[in-house]
Specification:
Number of helices: 16
Largest sheet: 5 strands, mixed
Radius of gyration: 23 Å
Structural class: alpha/beta
Bound molecules: 5-phosphoarabinonic acid
Strand order of the largest sheet: 1-10-9-7-8
C-alpha cells in the first residue's frame, strides 16, 4: 500500500454514535458510487480509468511527449483549474518544486492561462525569447476565457517565430472529442489533439491526457503512475469494509457534522505544495454547494508553523488537520558536526534532515491534538510516480464518497458560472447586453 490512513489521533474527538451513523452513510455512499446511481453519475469515468484508458491515445501522448522533449527548451502548458493543477502537482511532487532550475535534460515547464495577469504573461514571453517553444493548450469546454486568451497570445508568438506550418507542429491541443471552439480551431489548423473523456470532469482528469502529456514531458514515468492508480483502484474496489477511502469520508463528515467546518491539508514537504492546491480544488469544487461543505485549506510545515501554527494551536476550534507524512528519505542530508558548538545545535549533529522533519511532525501532531485539533494521518510511502497515481485515486474516490455522504453532487460546479456570466457581460460579450447594463449601474 503506497498510502495508509491512521485515525487514532482523530477518532477520540468524535462521538461514537455520530461515528456509527456517518460510517453507515459513507458505506451507502460507497455503494452509490459503484452502482453509478447517484447525482452526476455520468461523470464517473475516472472510477475505472486506470484499467480502461484509451491505449492508442496513451501511446500517442507518449510519442508527443518525446517529440516535445526533442524540439523545445520551454514547454508552455495553458489551462486553468482541473486543466492544469494536476499536472503541476505531479511535476513538483515527483520531480521538484525547483524543477525548472535543475539540470534535467527535459524542457522547462511553465503554466499559463491560469490567471489574467499581464506582468506574469510578459515574463513568460520574455522566458520564451531566443528559446524553442512548444505549447499544450488544455480546455475540456474549449471556451474558458483565461486559457483562450493565453492561447491567442502564444499562438501568435509561435506563428511569428516558426510560421504557421512550423507552429502547427509545436501546438498540442487537449479538449473535447468534438465540441467547443478549441476543437474547431485545432481541426482547422491541423494541430495534434488529445481527448478529455466525456465522462470525466476537469478536477478528476489528471490521469487522462490532460495530465499525462505535461507529466510525460517532465520525464516522469507515467506507466508507474498509472500502475499506482490501478493498484489503488483494485485495493479500494473490494468493498466498503476496512476501506481507507470510506474511512476518510467518514472522518471528515463526522468532523463537519460535529461543528468542525474547516479541513487543513498539511504537508511537511514543499514538493507537495501544489498537490495541496490540486486537493483544494477537488474537494472545494466537489463539496462546496447547496450551502454545505467543509472549507478545504492547506499549509506547508514547518514554514507555516511560524505563521498559521499559532492559529492552529490556539485559534477558533472549528478545524481539523489531515497530515500527509512521507516515510522515505530519498535524498538524505546530514547535519555537520561542529566541535565548537557555537550555535548550540550539536544535539542534531550527524542527524538527517528527514529525521528532524519526522520529529517536527511528531512534536506538532501531539501539540495540535493537545490543542484540541483532531489529526488524520495519511502515511505516504515516498514521492514516486507510483505513489502519486495511488494518492490521486485515493483522494478522487474518497471525494465522491464524501460528497454523497454530505448529500451533494460531487461532479458539478454550478457556482463557477456566476462570475463568468458577470465577466462576459462587463467585457461586452454579445448576448449579455441587459446584464451589462444592470451590472454597470450597480458598480456606479
Ligand atoms: O473541475 C472543473 O471542471 C473545472 O475546474 C475546470 O477544470 C476549469 O474550469 C477549466 O475548464 P475547461 O477545461 O473547460 O477550460
Amino acid at each position: 500500500m503506497a498510502v495508509k490512513l491512521i485515525d487514532k489521533h482523530a477518532v477520540d474527538f468524535i462521538d461514537k454514535t455520530l461515528y456509527s451513523e456517518v460510517a453507515a452513510d459513507a458505506a451507502k455512499a460507497y455503494k452509490t458510487v459503484y452502482d453509478r446511481s447517484g447525482a452526476g453519475s455520468d461523470f464517473l469515468g475516472w472510477l475505472d480509468l486506470p484499467e480502461k484508458y484509451d491505449r492508442d491515445e496513451y501511446v500517442r501522448v507518449k510519442a508527443a511527449a518525446e517529440k516535445i522533449k526533442q524540439s523545445c527548451d520551454v514547454f508552455i502548458v495553458i489551462g486553468i483549474g482541473g486543466s492544469y493543477l494536476g499536472a503541476r502537482a505531479a511535476v513538483e511532487f515527483v520531480k521538484s518544486p525547483l524543477y525548472n532550475n535543475l539540470k534535467k535534460g527535459t524542457p522547462d515547464i511553465y503554466f499559463a492561462g491560469k490567471d489574467i495577469n499581464s506582468a506574469y504573461m510578459n515574463e513568460l514571453l520574455m522566458l520564451c525569447k531566443d528559446r524553442d517553444v512548444c505549447i499544450n493548450v488544455i480546455s475540456k469546454s474549449g471556451t474558458t476565457t483565461e486559457p483562450s486568451i493565453a492561447f491567442r497570445v502564444f499562438r501568435e508568438l509561435l506563428e511569428k517565430k516558426y510560421g504557421e506550418k512550423g507552429a502547427c507542429g509545436r501546438i498540442f491541443v487537449t479538449t473535447d472529442k468534438s465540441r467547443g471552439k478549441l476543437k474547431a480551431l485545432a481541426d482547422e489548423k491541423g494541430y495534434e489533439t488529445f481527448t478529455v473523456p466525456d465522462d470525466i470532469g476537469g478536477r478528476y482528469s489528471v490521469l487522462t491526457s490532460v495530465g499525462l502529456l505535461p507529466i510525460a514531458v517532465a520525464g516522469i514515468d507515467v506507466d508507474a503512475m498509472m500502475r499506482g492508480a490501478a493498484d489503488a483502484m483494485a485495493c479500494y474496489g473490494k468493498g466498503a469494509e476496512d476501506n481507507d477511502c470510506v474511512k476518510y469520508a467518514t472522518l471528515r463528515n463526522c468532523m463537519y457534522r460535529g461543528g468542525r467546518g474547516i479541513e487543513i491539508l498539511v504537508t511537511y514537504d514543499p514538493a507537495l505544495a501544489m498537490f495541496n492546491e490540486w486537493w483544494k480544488q477537488l474537494y472545494g469544487e466537489s463539496e462546496g454547494k447547496d450551502n454545505k461543505g467543509l472549507y478545504p485549506s492547506s499549509v506547508v510545515f514547518s514554514s507555516d508553523l511560524h505563521s498559521m501554527g499559532q492559529y492552529i494551536q490556539q485559534g477558533t476550534r472549528n478545524i481539523f488537520e489531515t497530515v500527509m507524512n512521507i516515510k522515505a528519505d530519498d535524498s538524505p542530508v546530514v547535519i555537520p558536526d561542529d566541535p565548537q558548538n557555537v550555535d548550540g545545535m550539536n544535539f542534531v549533529s550527524k542527524k538527517t534532515l528527514h529525521y528532524i522533519n519526522e520529529n517536527a511532525f511528531n512534536a506538532t501532531l501531539l501539540a495540535h491534538v493537545d490543542g484540541q485539533v483532531p489529526n488524520v494521518i495519511l502515511e505516504l510511502r515516498d514521492r514516486s510516480a507510483y505513489t502519486f497515481g495511488w494518492l490521486v485515486y485515493f483522494f478522487e474516490l474518497a471525494c465522491a464518497i464524501s460528497g454523497y455522504t454530505l448529500g451533494v453532487n460531487p461532479f458539478d460546479q454550478p457556482g463557477v458560472e456566476s462570475y463568468k456570466k458577470n465577466m462576459y457581460a462587463l467585457l461586452g460579450k454579445p448576448g449579455y447586453e441587459e446584464e451589462r447594463k444592470a451590472l454597470l449601474e450597480r458598480l456606479g
